[in-house]
Amino acid sequence: MTAFALDDPFDRGSGLPKPGSVLRAAADSIPPSGLVLLAIFSVQLGAGFAKELFAALPPSAVVFLRIGAGALIMGALARPKLKGMSWRDLGVGVAFGVTLAVMNLVFYEAIARLPLGIAVAIEFLGPLGVAVAASRRRLDLLWIGLAAAGVALLAPWGQSASISWVGIGLAMAAGACWAGYILLSASVGRRFPGTTGLSFAMIVSAVVVAPVGITSGGGDLLQPQLLLIGLGVGLLSSVIPYSLELNALRRMPKHVFGILMSLEPAMAALVGVVVLGEVLHTQQWAAIICIVAASLGTTRATK
């Protein structure tokens, strides 16, 4: 949000503060750690509302609503300027967008089969793997072991017999896409100014998802209430958290940001309980704690 505020804080016609300056002041009044936690909550709340839509629309149609809404908003706030960019730059941007599309498609299919907290915990293995690969320390064996223990606790046996193997596979695929997203985002950040790289990627994602989303959703996608919820999901899952994270990163060390982001699986589990009524077993909570601990350890080791 603050990335798009204007320099002049007052509207010349009314003399009142502009919305952008009000949002900037509000964001600056919140500690950066609070902004990260709000961003995490926003993302998971958006996922919770998206899962509620599965009763009316298939997951792929909900993905289309979410990415389409996000692309429209981000495109308006940070219009991509492609003039003068090389084919290589555009290719990286397109790859980023395709990765974003596939990541959301497989993740939404995963949460259709798994509790939200479990799906996010498994998906988190993607960024965890990237962090471990960048560290190369012996201590990483401990974090790898903790993450493996978490996955073992979530596997469909014992107390977790109701967990879907297909859902676990889809969540792992989402994690692999998340790892690719992290690696590509660094390249996109070097090639595209400001937030235009993400804006371009979201537009590409919307184009990629559109055929499957429109085909599966059909005429139901035109229902006003579903469109409104889809807009809300797009705001909660993309625009709001990205703006909050951007503001937080400007005011805190990256390793602290990474440590706070490690709490995302736990937040997802809490949102699953409160919003979706997905009560987890003790074994499943233990699995999520193992993965969160592995992520926290890896993040501290790579600071």
TrEMBL record:
Top-level taxon of origin: Bacteria
Principal subcellular localisation of the protein: membrane
TM annotation in the entry: 56-78, 90-108, 114-134, 141-157, 163-184, 196-214, 226-244, 256-277, 283-302
Its membrane topology: Multi-pass membrane protein
Residues annotated as domain EamA: 166-298
Keyword field contains tRNA processing: no
Annotated localization: Membrane
InterPro entries: AA-Vitamin_Transporters, EamA_dom
PANTHER family reported for this sequence: EAMA DOMAIN-CONTAINING PROTEIN, INNER MEMBRANE TRANSPORTER
Membership in a protein family: Belongs to the EamA transporter family.
This protein's name: DMT family transporter
Species the sequence originates in: Nonomuraea guangzhouensis
